[in-house]
Amino acid sequence: MRTTYLRTALALICCSPATLLAQTNSPAATPADPPSPASTAVGTPRNTMVKLGTGLTRGFRFRTNTLTAPIVLGVEHHITSAWSVSGNAYAGLEVIEGKYYDSTLPLVRECGADIGARYYYNQEKRRQKGRATGPFTGNYLSAMTTATFYANANADGAHYRYGYSTLNVVWGMQRRIGRHGLFDAYAGGGIQNDYAFRYRNGHYRQGRVIDPNLEVGVKLSLVH
Asked: Does pTM top 0.85 for this prediction?
């Protein structure tokens, strides 16, 4: 019995160094791969927004028994967290015909476009107060220019003629409504080069004149 115990102890003593040596020479466990950029970039904000909306903006007109409603297609792109550039194209659709409606005029009575730049200010203060911030959200200052065209009818048919252009500075506020809604309201002013008749020196004269312009709008849009 004692001989058996002695043989077992000797076997363990002989095997232990070999086991330790094997563990020492075995390759170290490779560290886990770092997370991929795709797994860390969760919720990256979009820099470009496409808008389709309507509202009390260019293309909206209400006259005697006549209503024209605008359809506005726009794009806004953030170049930094605070600055963005935007462009819009609109068409004013005749939805209620007046008493003296001219059937030779097309459905789109007015169209035009605008481009501008926006500065969203006080983003950090709004964030500290728990208010909505981020791309396309907040109060802003904007410089924008517009061009407007009107439908006209003559013996050759209906066509569009240049109306006037404006250059404005506006203050506005833009807010998200759910996931695919957007509210945008703005007010400001500038100048326009409208075509007008003026009475001077006993005569009526017509031509382009530089006049003050008031720019006010409220838009509701679907966005992507």
From this structure: no
